[in-house]
Specification:
2 copies of one chain form a homodimer.
Chain A lengths: L1 H8 L3 H13 L1 H11 L7 E6 L6 H14 L4 E6 L26 E6 L8 H15 L3 E6 L4 H7 L4 E6 L5 H8 L7 E4 L7 H15 L9 E3 L8 H18 L1 H29 L3 H11 L5 H13 L3
Parallel strand pairs in A: 1-4, 1-5, 2-3, 2-4, 5-6, 6-7
Helix pairs in contact in A: 1-2, 2-3, 2-5, 4-9
Chain lengths: 314, 314
């Protein structure tokens, strides 16, 4: 394990790929790798990109990577895929996109699925970001598919979150209704060549003015055509301005503290859940399940009994 | 509290509404109400309805309620709304739809948001279903917005889960890719008057044949036009056949056991999370947070320390 981390720190991409697989799988090995590389982490700026399927997130990420490379920064992309809650398998597998960047040594792309962690993908992503930071990536893009609660919790791991929408999809209304607007530091109406793009942007701007989520920061609403790269320089500039705002206002520190608290909460929950899963095999816990099914014990009382069983004795 | 439950069992709708608010808020009162009514629960057939926004779920639920009333069964609808992870507020609020049923004493409609429960809406829904069962509803429809992980965990609380799609949205491909197909006991292609409806249905059927998720049950794929009620009788018949399958195969018992295990897991996690949240205020836990921020302690080690702090002493 120490060889692996030494190789990673020396710039060996194979070591990086292996470390990422290890943190994705979770468990003891993941803890060990993270323990060793944690001191070298925390330096990158994290950009979260989220939005409904079909708005062109992948193309936008592609174009943003091009923009970031113009600034001569090393960039990594983590694309998270929705995962079946039943089989736990990954879906997209190897990505065939972003072929324009495959020969660029300073671009790294990785798809991640929810494998080892019961607590969802976000725990693995926290650790994956650390691996990429230790390796030396300066910008890390976390792309999530969809705007469900899982995706939102992933989006919250970023420093700057970009919410991508498209004109005429009704997405903006859905977003406003669902409170998703609150997570956006920056809004992009992609497919800006479609009719209604600027109208959609105005509607979003208007609802943001009403909301005022962040003191000192009004999220800009930009229009882009990711296919052609139009509007991408403005997006990249806005990310820079947002980073400056985070640093000057002290929000970066505050957000990162909230992130650590959230991560600890998830980690503790995961440890508890693992203990619980193991204990469900025991015959007296099975007996408890049957008592609930027979309506002899209600679930809340059963849960209290379980906690006593699990932690009461140590 | 005992008056409340007595009134609810006597058929007082106001008592039911109050009990639902109590379980939605969570906490000690919720546990107490559930403890009293739990013995009267477990008798209804639960139908979960899920699908992307815009496929016409609400209209379909409306039409299905009409169908269920034709069979002279008492039916309740729980509509769960996506909730902002930041403000915790509900969105849709009072529902203005389903006006056709407002005068029908045997139909009950309730929107639920994720309020008291840290563990998400599903815990409140388990308990809400119990209240509705104790009151005497024979069919309970649980409608969720979206197909994220939260919605899936809610869908899993049902006995029969209906996945609603629409033609030409690309939804079916998204669903196949994301593994969401696996949760459907029944598939409905709504807006069947749009072009491509039957093609979409065939594609879904084909992918289901390849998958074979449930031994002894091939999920039917039906086409409906919820607006006009076309296809609704077939859907309701299919629900009946699925219930028969669940009973005859012993799957109903098996699923309900798995549901109790999942609920206990969530309840235990919630109790732990509540303890943890409270302890984060303590100065030595704050110190731990700062050590992680200063990269002196890695998060995994910090989580282990936290567990010891929280449970080690009792």
């Amino acid at each position: 394990m120490e060889t692996l981390t030494a190789q990673l720190l020396a710039g060996n991409k194979r070591a990086l790929a292996r470390a990422l697989t290890i943190v994705e799988d979770g468990g003891k090995d993941a803890c060990s790798v993270v323990r060793q590389l944690f001191p070298y982490s925390g330096k990158a700026h994290l950009i979260g990109i989220t939005g409904s399927p079909g708005v062109g997130k992948s193309t936008l990420v592609d174009a943003l990577v091009t923009e970031i490379r113009k600034a001569d920064l090393k960039v990594a992309v983590i694309a998270t895929d929705p995962t079946s809650p039943f089989t736990g398998g990954a879906i997209l597998g190897d990505r065939i996109r972003m072929q324009a960047h495959t020969l660029d040594q300073n671009v790294f792309i990785r798809s991640m699925a929810n494998r080892g962690h019961a607590g969802g993908t976000s725990l693995a992503i926290y650790d994956a970001v650390r691996m990429l930071e230790a390796f030396g990536y300066e910008i890390i893009i976390i792309e999530t598919v969809g705007v469900g609660q899982t995706e939102l919790s992933i989006a919250k791991t970023a420093d700057t979150t970009i919410l991508v929408l498209m004109p005429g999809s009704g997405d903006e209304i859905q977003a406003i209704k669902s409170g998703i607007m609150e997570i956006g530091d920056l809004f992009v109406v992609n497919k800006g060549d479609l009719p209604g793009a600027h109208k959609t942007a105005s509607e979003i701007s208007y609802s943001l003015e009403l909301a005022q989520h962040f003191p000192g920061w009004t999220p800009p609403v930009l229009v882009s055509i990711a296919e052609t790269g139009a509007g991408l320089d403005e997006i990249w500039q806005a990310v820079g301005k947002h980073r400056q705002y985070l640093l000057e206002s002290g929000m970066l520190e505050e957000r990162r503290k909230a992130k650590v608290a959230a991560e600890l909460e998830e980690l503790v929950s995961e440890i508890v859940r693992t203990n619980l899963k193991a204990s469900l095999e025991h015959s007296h816990i099975q007996e408890l399940l049957h008592q609930v099914l027979a309506r002899e014990v209600d679930p809340h009382s059963a849960a209290e009994n379980l906690i006593k069983e699990l932690f009461g004795s140590n």
